[in-house]
Write a structure and sequence with these properties.
Layout: H1 15-32, H2 37-44, H3 59-76, E1 79-82, E2 85-88, E3 91-99, E4 105-113, H4 115-120, H5 122-143, H6 150-164
Antiparallel strand pairs: 1-2, 3-4
Helix pairs in contact: 5-6
């Protein structure tokens, strides 16, 4: 019996595409015993591959995207000593800003700032807490069926209610 696949919460594709992608990935797993990113990319190179459209094939654009990812990684591995503890020097936070000719369109961007600066700005601090909560809810959704993590999942749900008054 074929497995049913669905598009995840933030997927940029629908359930029908998720089914095609999932089936293809399962076929790769069945054929090779496991799946690796290298195997997926190699499979996607074929123009008739069901996952071909999920990749950026223009090498100049792909190289630039890769360099941006390397920059994100760099920002995520630099620490400082803050009150005797090693903490990340730069924290990612999602910010909202107005754009367009009349500042009528709200856009979102991800920036990196020292955690101390984020805490000093009430709006940034609130945005950062929402980002953290999104991450925790993602963790809960991903691992919530693991009995061993019950207390962690419960704590996330309590924090969700505390910060939002309702689940995310």
């Amino acid at each position: 019996m074929a497995r049913k696949y669905f598009a995840g919460k933030n997927a940029s594709f629908n359930d029908q595409k998720a089914q095609a992608y999932g089936d293809h990935l399962q076929q790769l797993k069945d054929k090779h015993g496991n799946i690796t990113p290298a195997l997926i990319v190699e499979s996607a190179r074929q123009h008739n591959s069901p996952i071909h459209d999920r990749f950026l094939w223009d090498n100049e654009q792909a190289a630039e995207a890769h360099r941006r990812q390397q920059a994100r990684i760099l920002l995520n591995v630099i620490d400082i000593n803050h009150k005797g503890k090693r903490v990340r020097a730069f924290e990612s936070v999602r910010v909202h800003y107005l754009s367009g000719p009349d500042d009528e369109e709200t856009k979102t961007a991800r920036i990196y700032l020292p955690q101390v600066e984020i805490r000093k700005d009430p709006e940034l601090h609130s945005d950062n807490l929402r980002d953290i909560l999104r991450w925790l809810v993602h963790f809960k959704d991903r691992y919530g069926t693991m009995k061993e993590l019950g207390p962690v999942i419960q704590a996330i749900e309590e924090l969700e209610g505390e910060l939002l008054g309702e689940p995310v």
